[in-house]
Every structure is written in C-alpha cells, then in structure tokens.
C-alpha cells in the first residue's frame, strides 16, 4: 500500500490528471446544466457550480505549487556538493646537484608518501560507497620533456610500492600499478561539511617528487613550466541512492623555492569540476 501511495504522489502526471484535468472536465459538464435535460436534475445553476469548481481548481493549483516547492526543497536538502581543497606542502628540502647520493631514497621520500588533497562534502546530504582514481592527461608530454635532457635519465626514486629507475620505464610502471589498483575503494560515508583525505597514488607522487630531487632539475621544471596535469574521478552514491561521478581537473600547481636554504613549497589545486549521473 505504501508503495502504491508513493508511486501516485511521486508521479506528476497522475497528480495533475486527478486535481486539474478531471475537475476541468466536470466543469465543462456543469456548463451544460441549463441546456441538457438530463443534467437539469442537478440542483443549482451552472453559474453556481462554475463558481464552486473555479474556486476548487484555483485551490488545487495552489496546492500543487506548494507541493512542487516542498519537493524541490527536500531534494535540495539531500543534494551532495563535493569540493576539492588545496594541497600545500612547505619546507621540502631538496638536494644540490643532479644525482641522488649513492642512489638512495631522497630525503623527502617519507613526506611524499602521504600527499593528500582534502575532499569536502559541501552539500546538505551524505554520500556513500566512495571510490576514486586518477588519470594523467599530459603523461606523453612530460616524458618527452624529460627525455630530451640526458642528465636527468639516471635519477631514481623508490618506495615500498613502486620503483622508478628512469623516466623511460615510467609508463610501464604506471600501467602495472593501474592494473592492480584501477580504483581506490574507501567505502563508508561522508557527512555534510566533513572532509575526506584523497591520497595521491604513488605514480603521481613520483611525478611531483621528481623535480624535487635536485636543485638543477627544479630550476628546469620551474622555467619550462613542466607540471603534471591529471584528473581525479570520484564515484559515489548520494542521499537519494543515485550513482554519481565527479571529475576534478588538477592542472595548476606551483613550486616555490628559497635559493639560500633550498627549501621548497608545493601547491596543488583543482581548476575544473564536473558532476554528473554515473549510469553504469
């Protein structure tokens, strides 16, 4: 019974037909009271009945308007609006020169194993079953830019998940990583005004860390404005249990450096945001 009632009140065609179309049809019949012998048995004149039905139709339209506004307000109260905050990391120490000392991990490796960007639910409804993934838009451009510089080929980065021996093998490492971790599942839920830390995958962290392995390399990157352009895909269910997909383009980032202390600052932020239904 509840399902039937819900289907009726959730269907605008049924509501309009019952509250507007049928009364108008009855009103037309009432116009004929004075002209059709069979209808003359109905007490009252057609003018009296038309006044009554006119008032009813006006009231019905007012009720429909109020219902529509209430329905939209309820939908608005459940709306989920995601916002990707700014990542900023200060006082990152880089090395002078080109090569990493003894081929070991760079000093900032530990810090850069936890690059995160804050995902904020700025809407009024919670979201559930959150998953996310990344895609690098200008990977070929980055690789070609680095490959032109022979002195940069020997730089190696490594951590517990991925080994980056040179820019030449980077694409292969990325493909391997994505086969294992196409989407990062978070599960759970994100309430309104709450923040979720989006951890950047290691293959993107390496691209961001790469210019910070040496003073000379960082100067080249800052001069030529070589910076990763990537997209963040977030899939989730909103408060109405609809599947949603939000796409954030992260193409703006800045390296700042103090030439005396060799301390750097890295900033990342989103420049474009698209939210749409995710019909799988």
Secondary-structure blueprint of this entry?
Layout: H1 2-9, H2 12-31, H3 46-78, E1 82-84, E2 87-93, E3 116-121, E4 127-136, H4 139-147, E5 157-158, E6 163-164, H5 170-180, E7 184-190, E8 195-199, H6 202-209, H7 215-224, E9 230-237, E10 243-250, E11 252-258, E12 263-269, E13 272-277
Antiparallel strand pairs: 1-3, 2-12, 3-8, 4-7, 4-9, 5-6, 9-10, 10-13, 11-12
Task: Explain what the structure shows.
With 280 residues, the chain is an alpha+beta fold. The chain has two domains: 2-77; 80-277. The protein is 35% helix and 28% strand. The chain has seven helices and 13 strands. It has helices at 2-9, 12-31, 46-78, 139-147, 170-180, 202-209, 215-224, and strands at 82-84, 87-93, 116-121, 127-136, 157-158, 163-164, 184-190, 195-199, 230-237, 243-250, 252-258, 263-269, 272-277. Strands 7-4-9-10-13 form a five-stranded antiparallel beta sheet, with no helix packed on it. A hairpin with a 5-residue loop joins strand 9 (230-237) and strand 10 (243-250). Helix 2 packs antiparallel against helix 3. The longest helix has 33 residues, at 46-78. The radius of gyration is 31 Å and the shape is elongated. Residues 1-9 and 98-111 have low confidence and may be disordered. Keywords: Membrane, Plasmid, Transmembrane, Transmembrane helix. The chain crosses the membrane at residues 12-33, 53-70.
């Amino acid at each position: 019974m509840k399902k039937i009632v819900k289907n009726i009140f959730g269907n605008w065609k049924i509501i309009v037909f019952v509250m507007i179309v049928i009364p108008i049809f009855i009103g037309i019949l009432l116009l004929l009271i004075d002209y059709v012998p069979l209808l003359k048995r109905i007490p009252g004149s057609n003018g009296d009945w038309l006044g009554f039905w006119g008032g009813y139709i006006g009231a019905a339209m007012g009720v429909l308007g109020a219902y529509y506004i209430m329905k939209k307000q309820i939908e608005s109260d459940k709306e989920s609006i995601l916002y990707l905050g700014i990542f900023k990391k200060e006082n990152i120490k880089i090395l002078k020169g080109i090569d990493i000392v003894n081929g070991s991990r760079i000093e900032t490796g530990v810090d850069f194993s936890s690059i995160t960007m804050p995902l904020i639910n700025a809407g009024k409804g919670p979201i559930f079953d959150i998953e996310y993934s990344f895609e690098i838009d200008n990977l070929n451009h980055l690789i070609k830019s680095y490959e032109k510089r022979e002195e940069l080929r020997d730089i190696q980065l490594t951590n517990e998940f991925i080994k980056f021996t040179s820019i030449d093998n980077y694409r292969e490492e990325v493909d391997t990583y994505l086969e294992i971790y196409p989407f990062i599942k978070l599960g759970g839920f994100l309430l309104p005004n709450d923040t979720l830390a989006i951890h950047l995958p290691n293959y993107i962290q390496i691209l961001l860390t790469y210019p910070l392995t040496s003073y000379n390399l960082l100067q080249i990157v800052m001069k030529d404005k070589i910076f990763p352009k990537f997209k963040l895909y977030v899939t989730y269910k909103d408060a109405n249990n609809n599947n949603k997909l939000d796409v954030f383009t992260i193409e703006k980032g800045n390296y700042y450096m103090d030439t005396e202390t060799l301390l750097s600052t890295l900033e990342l932020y989103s420049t474009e945001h698209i939210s749409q239904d995710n019909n799988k």
